[in-house]
Amino acid sequence: MPYYQTWEEFARAAEKLYLTAPMKVRVVLKYRHCDGNLRIKVTDDAVCLQYKTDQAQDVKKIEKLHGKLMRLMVSKESGDHE
């Protein structure tokens, strides 16, 4: 499973994947202190999207996307349960 080279491509693909299968998608964040790498993986078991960075400025971008996906998950679930 290769990593995306640019953040913009990864963010678009991750959001699109979530919107196509919101009940199957999961998001994993992993930080390895020994490498100084932060990795984000978005998967629905059929498709796996990954992005890795060691740049501090990318952390804010990852936080922003993670927050956006979490908000989408909460809003979809609250609508389904009513």
Automatic annotation (TrEMBL):
UniProt-listed GO biological process terms: negative regulation of translational elongation; SRP-dependent cotranslational protein targeting to membrane
Molecular-function GO terms, alphabetical: 7S RNA binding
Chief subcellular location: cytoplasm
Matches recorded under Pfam families: SRP9-21 (PF05486)
Entry GO terms, CC: cytosol; signal recognition particle, endoplasmic reticulum targeting
Family listed: Belongs to the SRP9 family.
Free-text function comment from the UniProt entry: Component of the signal recognition particle (SRP) complex, a ribonucleoprotein complex that mediates the cotranslational targeting of secretory and membrane proteins to the endoplasmic reticulum (ER). SRP9 together with SRP14 and the Alu portion of the SRP RNA, constitutes the elongation arrest domain of SRP. The complex of SRP9 and SRP14 is required for SRP RNA binding.
Subunit comment: Heterodimer with SRP14; binds RNA as heterodimer. Component of a signal recognition particle complex that consists of a 7SL RNA molecule of 300 nucleotides and six protein subunits: SRP72, SRP68, SRP54, SRP19, SRP14 and SRP9.
Name of the protein in its database record: Signal recognition particle 9 kDa protein
Species: Oncorhynchus mykiss
